[in-house]
Design a protein that fits this description.
Layout lengths: L1 E4 L4 E3 L5 E3 L8 E4 L4 H6 E5 L4 H13 L4 E4 L10 H6 L7 E4 L2 E4 L1 H11 L10 H35 L7 H22 L4
Helix pairs in contact: 2-4, 5-6
Length: 195
Amino acid sequence: MSIAAGPDCWRRSSSGSRRRDTDAAQFPCKVNLDLTAKERSMTELYVFPPSPRAFKVMALANHLGIEPTLHMLDLIKGEQKSPQYAALNPNMRMPTLKDGDYVLWESNAILQYLAAKRPQSGLLPTDEKARLDVTRWQFWDLAHWDPTCAVFIFENVVKSVVLKSGEPDPAAIAKATESFHRIAKVLDGQLKGKQ
């Protein structure tokens, strides 16, 4: 695996030798993993790793043995607003998956797409009710879990460390903590007795 930034990005070829990545200027930072030639040319993920949305997509790809070329976007620098990226994702957010000519954005849609590529994993059931249960929990994640956890990330990391725009807001943290405990009980109840 090679990690690099800017025009000096390198890509590890299938033979293991390093070569300069000539399209590095388009997307300033990449991580390239050893893949089959077909997968290397087909599957790409555009991500901002501090984001839980990026982490969950990368984690599932890793779990399923899908090793896409990762394009790291620096949202703090506004790289998601480049014309090249906006052409892939008009929302100018991430993650975005590109698989050949097919482009898909929205993290939970990407999760379902990746799981469908490996049906033997059983992560996306074929039974309609079981599949809808997966979708329900993905909706729950976006409506309840993600917004609550985002407050902690914003206040403790983005605001105070990355942006250096002030200390965490105790009132926002207290409200998010109350919400977290309430919604965590819902998740705990669902997971109780399961492995």
